[in-house]
């Protein structure tokens, strides 16, 4: 008996819900045949079979939530995995590694053979990919163990990736600006000329019969053909995503290598899988829409509702231009494909008005090129989603009278006030573990400073703020801002914050509900100064007021603790010096 455990479906979430089984117990399935539709955070994903075999048990019913790593499907003992299938095994497989051999001493170089592939590891952010900023080596260079190879931009930092070997660089997979998925090839080591450009005919025939061209060295499956590889794994992944036929793409890179730009241009030119020319694609757009019976469902990302909508309209998913999140096909994409088939598309630079379905004002349709959210903005989006899903936020708002302030650096005063309040009420200077229901109250105060930038929101940290005076705080903040501008901010510059400050009032805004970043439990927002008239015992006086907004996680803090903390902040801020 073989067990198939639910893998991480790409969302980084601990579980997924069964939407619909596509097979039943007793069925004999082929490798990569869709077995079940699982719903993750905001997407429905089809999970393929990892084996050729007979299903003996389906572990769960529609609606059941299955944890990642739990058994999902049981196969009989005759099932064989793709890795174990002799027909799909290449004669000289490339050795895939993501780290140096753990058995080798750290100070000794690790010997490699031709064809070693270093795959991009998780760089400590838990994100699915990273962007190449700058290569520090070139093809043909001989590297030493731990020599920096490339600068990769993750969530909010630029990380240098060291070489796991003492070896010669055969191939660099990607150019500056390219996004590489974790687990995808980054650098190939060994003699670049030692790997054959194409597979042996016998191997190609075997691979075609097994249907697994991914295991053939130097070949890639395109449609029903196996063609010589002139593209890296990154290019192949992009081609699969855009459904581009690599056999129709002419490479513009070094030695005729296909680049990402070539693939994207081929998509615009209509060189998709199943087409033989640009004219054929245009003809298919003007002809009746193809049916979906001959399409591989794994080639398209669409929810069951969208698939059903496409079937009702008779629209092939291959003709739909995905505009949804993470390249998913939406109902609007299906409708657009239907309209394109009914009449030849017309190019226009102006918005097109169409009658409203309700008979009222016309609906304006504007074609906009979607922008990929990645890097800092992607990290921000994921962090906000995590906070929204886990934190129980409550916000207290109050004003501090800062009329007595001399001209000085307000940011340094905010940091000082947070330090003072953390000593008065330590409950808000802590981390909270919502799974174990444990909290860690910190003796030191490490203040995260929210910094706005064109690339997105950074939150570098002023470590040991309770041990720094105003001059040291200003110097640290200036240093962090400089690093953000030059994209030299490191991971250690952004880790370990125990409480966060958001000075949104430097731009605009009086009060707000700033978002707590777990495992922290509090964030202080400072609004824009204002002057107001106040009635006192001595008459009416003009006062300078600072709006404050304190958001705290009500799972970890009581309202009384938060109120005492805010009162302490105000007490320190209202001091003249």
TrEMBL record:
Keywords assigned by UniProt, alphabetized: Acyltransferase, Lipoyl, Transferase
A cellular component term, taken from the record's GO annotations: cytoplasm
Residue span of region Disordered: 83-113, 191-212, 342-363
Keyword Transferase attributed: yes
Enzyme nomenclature, EC number: 2.3.1.-
Acidic residues: compositionally biased ranges: 202-211
Domain Peripheral subunit-binding (PSBD): from-to ranges: 230-267, 301-338
GO terms of molecular function: acetyltransferase activity; lipoic acid binding
Cross-referenced PROSITE patterns: BIOTINYL_LIPOYL (PS50968), LIPOYL (PS00189), PSBD (PS51826)
Cofactor needs: (R)-lipoate
Domain spans labelled Lipoyl-binding: 1-76, 115-190
Highest taxon of the lineage: Bacteria
Top EC group: transferase
Sequence ranges of Low complexity compositional bias: 83-111, 191-201, 342-358
One of the Pfam families matching this protein, by short name: Biotin_lipoyl
Complex formation: Forms a 24-polypeptide structural core with octahedral symmetry.
Family indicated by similarity: Belongs to the 2-oxoacid dehydrogenase family.
Protein name according to UniProt: Dihydrolipoamide acetyltransferase component of pyruvate dehydrogenase complex
Native species: Aliikangiella marina
